[in-house]
Amino acid sequence: MSEPEFLSTTRSGYNARAEEYHDLVRETWGENLFDLAMLDVFAGLVKAVEPRRVADIGCGPGHVTAHLRTLGLEAAGIDLSPELLAIARREHPEVPYSEGTMTALDLPDASLGGVLARWSIIHTPPEQLPEVFAEFSRVLVPGGVLLLGFFAHTNDSRIGWQFDHTVAPAWRLSTNRIARLLEEAGFREKARLIESASPHSKRGFEAGHLLLHKEQP
């Protein structure tokens, strides 16, 4: 069976611009204190769960996966772009990385204490997000922790609005509608953070962070 077109398009786009993307994140990583704070909270919550294994889904060049390991987590990265994974392995050889997609994770049921999807769900068409969230739920233990990052919208009239991402088709997402989809997938919201757009932002989008627990049976 052939894979969904959005996966092929996203993979090709990031493969073609992998080094450029790596240079961009290397220049800006660590500057956003809100982003770092949410990762710290995520790590602290995962440490209260067994196991401490975490998947960084859509890990790109691997910098956040490596950061999670400095926070005491058994973090591994997953990405669909072989070119980005080659950079991740070059820059962080101590971290395990593997090729895969968030629609069909090659992970056993209830094998993780945490899932991080940081600006990686934005390339998934909104109608396919329930399938992705079901996969996140499947691989997490009960009580496991999910942290999502995405471009946020306060308009709840629909789930997402497509915009002119430079690499692949992408969507700005309604925070409340995404939270409801996650609730339907078996998650309970723990906290959210909505960052106002930076004055230097190209598009003027807010950044959304949703922190959730997988419900206990």
Main sheet properties: 9 strands, mixed
The proportion of residues forming helix, as a percent range, comes to: 25-40%
The total domain count is: 1
- The residue ranges in which pLDDT falls below 50 over 5 or more consecutive positions are none
Shape: globular
At the fourth level of CATH, the homologous superfamily is: Vaccinia Virus protein VP39
Number of helices: 7
What is the element string, with H for helices and E for strands? HHHEHEHEEHEEEHEE
The first-level CATH class is given as Alpha Beta
At the fold tier of CATH, the topology name is Rossmann fold
The averaged pLDDT comes out at 95
Distance between the terminal alpha carbons, to the nearest Å? Answer: 34 Å
So what's the oligomer here? Answer: single chain
What is the annotated CATH architecture? Answer: 3-Layer(aba) Sandwich
Report on the structure:
Helix 5 (82-91) links the parallel strand 2 (74-79) and strand 3. The termini are far apart. The radius of gyration is 16 Å and the shape is globular. It has helices at residues 5-16, 18-28, 33-46, 63-70, 82-91, 129-139, 175-184; strands at 53-57, 74-79, 97-99, 112-118, 140-153, 160-163, 170-174, 187-195, 206-214. 35% of the residues lie in helices and 29% in strands. Strands 1, 2, 3, 4, 5, 6, 7, 8 and 9 form a 9-stranded mixed sheet that branches. The chain has 217 residues and is of the alpha/beta class. The chain has a single domain (5-214), classed as Rossmann fold (3-Layer(aba) Sandwich), CATH 3.40.50. The longest helix has 14 residues, at 33-46. The mean pLDDT is 95. It has 7 helices and 9 strands, in the order H-H-H-E-H-E-H-E-E-H-E-E-E-H-E-E.
